[in-house]
Structures are given as structure tokens and as C-alpha cells.
Amino acid sequence: MNLIRTASRAATAAALAAALSAGSVHGAAAESPTDRTSKAHRLNQTADDGGWSGEGLSLTPADNAAVDAFYDRATKAEQTISPQVQAAARISRADVIGFDHRLKSPDSLKRKVATSLKEHPGQEVNEALAEIKDSVRYTLQWPDDRYAQGVTVASAVLSAWGNDSTKWSNTWARGKGYKAINSAWLAPSSQHLFEVQFHTPASKNAQEVTHKLYEEQRLPTTSPERARELQAQQDAIFAAVPVPPGAEHLTAPAPVPVG
User: Fold this and answer.
1) Which of 57, 129, 139, 142 could form a disulfide with 146 if both were Cys (CB 3.0 to 4.6 A apart)?
2) How confident is the model at residue 215 (pLDDT cuts 50, 70, 90)?
3) What was the pLDDT predicted at 18?
4) Could you read off the pLDDT of 164-201 as tens digits, one per residue?
């Protein structure tokens, strides 16, 4: 059994090296992560005292500085994570969707942290940041007939490269609501969490159509009645998404033994 595992890991490593040497997958951004980081910081306006506010939310100067530092760590981690995700996409024949937006913007991070702090009085900023799994995020997509195999291969490649699966949310079997697989991984070199969503064209389209509804629903100013109405609209859109064969049975890959 150990010999088989060793051979499997060697084969995976060879496939990864071949994928990387072949170049990045279609859809990679022409703009460098460094350029995007600089531009994002220019667009992120802070208060005179170093704090942040927006959409009825706010961060103290200290909390704002902590989020900025977290964002800087995310931009550095992305540089080693992206080549691995691109290789997994190439090997599994996936389309990479929205690669230009692989880094969550500073303002989006701040809104998320500020919302968490507001909803959980007494929570520390580092506790809120530890819950963020999508500061670096990717979407891989396959047609329905290749979805199950594609997810299995891509997730196995990520695992074989030493990324630990920390979250695997498969919602294909749900009677209503969002349909896809959202996974989170801990990168071995940076110890930074990143998200990979596994979609079909129909489920990705539904996600995009419902995005504005979801954004309104999550605002602290949205009333419970309006939130229920928005959820019902999202449920109706996702109900029309076909479930790919075998998708509801897909699970996270088992950890690859070391040595």
C-alpha cells in the first residue's frame, strides 16, 4: 500500500510540474498581483484618524491597520497559491472563472470584518480575520457531464500538493438555496486560507444573478422580512439549476500521507 501511495504522489508531482511548465490556464490576468495590490490600496479611503467607515459600518484605527496587514499577507500568499490552482485546473480540464478577482478587495474585507465585529460584541479583530477563508479565492467550472470527475481530480491535485482541506460544503443535495461546492484550503508554505468554488455553468450563472440579492440580504440594515423575501427569490433561481450526475456524493479528498 505504501508503494502505491508513493507512486501516486510521484505521478501527481510529475503532472503538476508538466502543467506548470505548459503555462497558465486561459483567463489569467494580465495585471500583476503587485499592480492590483497598489491600485486597491489607492482606492481604499480611510478616515483622518486612520479608521475606516462605510455602509453604516466602521473600524477603529487599530482594527483597520490589522485588516490592512491581513490583506498584505493575502497578496503574498496568492503568489504561491495561484500557480497550484492553475495547475489543478489544467489537469482537470477546468475553466477558471474570474481569475482577475482572485484577491478580495481591502474594502470588502473591511466590510466583512466590521460586520462580524458588530454582530459579535466583544469579538477581537484577529478572531474575525481568522474566520475569513476567501481573501484569496478561485472558481473552477466544468460542464455537467465532466463535473464530478473534474472536482475529484482538481481537489486531489490540491491535496497532493500539501494543501489541507479545512472546509468542504457540498450543497448540491439541498432542496433549496445555493448549489455548488465551496471548499477552503490551508496553503502549506504561507499557512494562509484560500477558497476554491467548484461550479457548473448553470450554478455559476445562478450565483451571479443572485449576488445583488445576497449582498442586500447580508446588510445589517436589512429587515428580517426583507431578508426572507430575498432568500425566497434566491431559492427560486437556484431551484432551476440542474444537479450534475454524482455531484451530491462528492466529498473532500483524504489527506495524502507524508513520507
Assistant:
1) 142
2) confident
3) 57
4) 999 999 999 998 899 999 999 999 999 999 999 999 99
Read off the pTM: 0.81
Determine whether 258 is exposed, middle or buried from the number of CB atoms within 10 Å of its CB (0-12, 13-18, 19+). exposed
